[in-house]
């Protein structure tokens, strides 16, 4: 009994632990997150129920609670109503106490009623998984000790219990809104922690997910890897999963020049890609302007100081940096033009009260003015924008 029924060597226990926690992570990212919370994925009933049972056994989490809290996070991201925003609570509280924030929110009846819809309500959920959600983790303790022995089993049990609260509730909700790189300028603080997302099931690509929350695939750049997507592809090949939605892929038609309703639709659908490419265009403009100022013997420090704020909306620039922006614009009219054009473009998809014809006219006018600006990166960007299809 001390060695357990499996009687594994120490490295066998370690390997078993890594496999067990990866199954739990797969259950969270595939079942709870992509399938239940966002409906990006449809799992075969057998797979879906296995994950539901596994989560009951290893975490005690209730599907309805998890989905509701996560949906509210997206709906109220970085506001006072966000259940776990580092901007509101501070990184330390979310990183080390994220599970407590989760538990607190799970007791809010209004959150469950508003955001907990379309989650399992079958007999097992009503009579076993929800009312006896703590029994699973008690059964897990017995199983771990019986299989691996008293000491190894106890260690494996503790790690299993702590894994999701720390890595999902802490690291993803904390670090994933605090540190990393951003492919897209979403209206929140989400970041991609690392491009190779294998340790936490692909959830490390958090900025990509916030840009396209209903996409079953989190990796969007050629150098990114989402292990969760690999699991999905394996399940697909076995007929056990159906992908309902992915992030739209940019299609360019070089022969297309006239801005029309299809151009508008494509630009709005790919607005995060549009803004990401505009950011690159602005960086090129600022680099050209600094070189021109340096060549003329002028001070280019004002332009250099604001490079980090050129890619954000005007309202997001802190007050003490706006004076720096004005100084930069005084020394560089081209930069001012590019900045103002960026603000205009980002407002295009916010004008829900305008008709399609009005929006097409505004986009066409924007392109014409951009191409008459004599700012080379802006002209190049506008010509590419016309090709969106």
Quick recap:
It contains 18 helices and four strands.
Features:
single chain, 389 residues, mainly alpha, two-stranded antiparallel ribbon, two-stranded parallel sheet, 18 helices, 4 strands
Question: Could you explain how this protein is built, in words?
Answer:
The structure is a single chain. This protein has 389 residues and is mainly alpha-helical. The chain folds into two domains: 10-243, no CATH class; 261-385, no CATH class. Helices cover 61% and strands 3% of the residues. It contains 18 helices and four strands. The chain has helices at 10-37, 45-58, 63-75, 86-89, 91-106, 109-115, 123-129, 135-148, 150-174, 206-211, 227-237, 261-269, 271-295, 301-305, 319-331, 333-348, 356-371, 376-385; strands at residues 41-43, 196-197, 225-226, 241-243. The strands form two sheets. The chain has a two-stranded antiparallel ribbon. β2, α10 (206-211) and β3 form a beta-alpha-beta unit. α1 packs across α2 (45-58) and α17 runs antiparallel to α18. The mean pLDDT is 92.
Instruction: Kindly state the percentage of residues in helix.
Output: 55-70%
Pattern of helices and strands: HEHHHHHHHHEHEHEHHHHHHH
* Cross-sheet strand order for the largest sheet: 1-4
- Spatial extent as radius of gyration: 25 Å
User: Kindly, what is the distance between the CA atoms of the first and last residues, rounded to a whole number of angstroms?
Assistant: 66 Å
* Structural class computed from helices and strand pairing: mainly alpha
**Biggest sheet, in brief?**
2 strands, antiparallel
Continuous helix count: 18
**Overall outline:** elongated
Contiguous runs where pLDDT drops below 50 for at least 5 residues: none
How many structurally independent domains? 2
Strand content: under 5%
The number of E-state strands comes to: 4
